[in-house]
Amino acid sequence: MWLEVVLFVVLVVLLRYWFLRPKGMPPGPLVIPFLGNIPPFHISQVKEYRKKYGDIFRTELGSTKLIYLCNYQLIKEAFNKQELADRPDLPFANILTDGKEAGVIMTNGERWQNARRFLLRNLRDLGMGKTYLEDAIQQEANMLVEEMKKDTGVSTPFPQPINIAVLNVVWQMVASKRYMPGDERIRSFIKLLRSLEFSTWLVVADLFPRLKKIIPKFIRGKFLGEDSFARLVKEAKRLMGEVVAEHRAKLDPANPQDVVDQYLVAMDSKADIAEFFSELDLLKTAFDIFAAGFDTSSNLLRWMILYMIKYPDVQRRVQQQIDDVVPRDTLPSYQHKSRLPLVEALIHEVLRMSSLVGLGLLHSNISDVQLGGYFIPKGSWVFGCTVCCHDDPQYWKQPDQFNIDRFLDAEGNFSGQKEGFLPFSLGRRSCLGEALARMELYIFTAAILQNLSFSAPEGCEVDLEPNYRTIGIQLPKDQNIVITPRK
User: Fold this and answer.
1) pLDDT of residue 125
2) Beta strand pairing status for 481-485 and 155-156?
3) Tell me: the pLDDT tens digits for 51-81?
4) Cys bridge to 165: 125, 144, 236, 445, which one at CB 3.0-4.6 A?
């Protein structure tokens, strides 16, 4: 009797679940009611799912729908929609501010709009995207070259000053501060930041908070990365807190020097924008810029070095053009850019091949929306899979081949942006620092290849297989290289 009752209740619950499910959603793998299925967080899995289900497919975690867009036009259409301009509500993304929504990367609505407008205006005023900023970039590029020369002739890991040189460019605008390569405090913090694995566990814990309570704390801490994450949060709060406190103590409202000063002035004002400003929000905003300011560009420079090792003929070809255009006692600058099309083509091909943020930054829709002929329910997580655009034969001939000539025209000039190319985010959530990143990559790449050559240690092969330790990110693997000064 009881068995029949239980079976009847289970049947009713399952029928209710299936009848109340949204209709017309994209195809996807079999869903276990109330649990979902295993999402393809790793890029190789996304590619397999695309082959099976097409350019738009769906997986589920609990009640959350995960939508993967694997087509350039589809991504472009989606992220220009107002309905898809939000980020999902992820508690771990706001752990630095004790769960309060803050910063610029993961916020929404008026808070995000005000933060974005404020940062764009002030970063532009301070030089972002303007040619006079190149003096600061060249200073860091020169410092990096000199530091890398200290490790020449021997098998060595990627020099850590790559991180510091890239960080210094944006951090001088944000906090009037630059770090020296030997600064152990900042080196330790960057090492901690780079070593952290944003594992599937962090995502699952946000979707199934009761599961977190069931798992013993020592397991969460040691095996699921919770202890490392806690150390990062503690160190980030201390570092960012010191930056804010130093600026507060020296603030001259009539003469703000950087973004932090401008923020404090705006926060203290009676303007409407001050409603969304607080020192807690400033702490998170500073951390957002700090992390974004070095991580992407420094990893792309690592990818560039690995590809130069793998393709020494390309390395020599780019170096020869630099030698033909730029005097040996002069660092490459923006005035040389039009005459260095191979540098631009190299950067773009590395951006395409590495597809560093392969699943794009996560979006969420604030209301139901139709996309690609399918129904996307409100609150879905939407991934714009740039890696699928960058290996799409519709846009790229032999996409799996490294070929810088695909970005050159018949006369050997740089041909510019191409259809199917998404190195940075687009639409309403386009990258704040894209202009700065492009300038950095050009000057750093040209300066490095002007002065240094790269090869693999004797008897070794360079490994171009990405490290997938962070969800959706294709990081270059840590490996030894050989740096040789050029005469």
Assistant:
1) 75
2) antiparallel
3) 999 999 999 887 888 999 999 999 999 998 8
4) 144
Q: For residue 462, which of 408, 406, 404, 402 has the smallest C-alpha distance?
A: 402
**Does position 195 have pLDDT exceeding 80, yes or no?**
no
What radius of gyration, in Å, describes the C-alpha atoms of the chain? Answer: 24
- 70 in helix, strand or coil? coil
Place of tokens 């807190």: 241
Closest CA to 157 of 487, 442, 476, 441: 476
Q: How far apart are CA 295 and CA 129, in angstroms?
A: 19
Backbone angles phi, psi at 118, to 5 degrees: -60, -50
Q: Contact at 8 Å (CB) between 363 and 382? A: yes
Pairing mode, strands 64-69 and 381-384: parallel
Whose tokens are 């566990």? That residue is 201
Cβ neighbour number for residue 470 with a 10 Å cutoff: 16
C-alpha dihedral (463, 404, 149, 460), degrees to nearest 10: 20
Residue reference for tokens 């959706």 = 472
Q: What is the rounded distance in angstroms from the CA atom of residue 258 to the CA atom of residue 329?
A: 32
Contact criterion met (CB below 8 Å) for 486 and 447: no
The Cα 120–Cα 116 span in angstroms is: 6
Are the C-beta atoms of 225 and 201 separated by less than 8 Å?
yes
Residue 57, C-beta contacts closer than 8 angstroms, at least 6 positions apart: 26, 27, 28, 49, 50, 67, 68, 70
